[in-house]
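Could you join me in thinking about how sequence relates to backbone shape in a protein? To get us started, please write out a protein record for me. Would you write everything just below, so we can both look at the same thing?
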Amino acid sequence: MTPAALFLSHGSPMMVLEDTPARRFLQTLGERVGKPKAVVAVSAHWPTQVPAVGCAAWPDKINDIYGFPPDLYRLVYDAPGAPKVAAAAAALLGPATRSDPGRGIDHGIWSVMSLIWPQADVPVVPMSVQPDRDARHHYELGLRLRPLAAEGVMIIGTGAATHNLGDYFRRPADAPVEPAMAAFTDWLAEATVAGRIDDLLDYRVRAPGATLAHPSDEHLLPFFTALGAASGGRGQRIHHSMDSGVLAMDCYAFS
């Protein structure tokens, strides 16, 4: 069964080239979820003041990465856009929403979609986050997108279950799991399965290790839009792994 929404941790873009547990999982995910009519991909790497959607018919691949091997920049992922879906999303999100015909797909989007649907045959509409707004704001954006999800458009939030890059760059790849990160990711999974919406929206206060797991909110904000887009109000963790003991690559499905 195709879920209404997913939350995918994208981690380092090197996941596209290097063998990791998360990469192996994403390579099998396409078979499990099928091919939706289109994807609205809410990316932590597109910050805006007000909600925005990309409405290009053929969005460019944005190489918003620095210092990586040439093969990563040469990677071609030329999925089509979905202007009609973008227009419908903008109408649902409200009159303040901006439509951007020049917006491409950043590495938070192409890194995961190129593994899930490598043939680039699923149309994609990028959607922004508002880092100055809170989890509830992003959850409410997801609520507004429920009619699209009900019509076979998958809402994908792409960010990170934990995102403390300061700790990540200080640690070797085989570092043991930081206990605070384990506590946070376990809490997130348990609250999601139980449908504890209020706890999740107030995660900064209620979740253990929240400040260490997310020094800033932007990489978890897409999670809340995916959560809101699913009518069931619950989800399940469908993948769990940890890079360098601190960067959680967890993925969630919401029905």
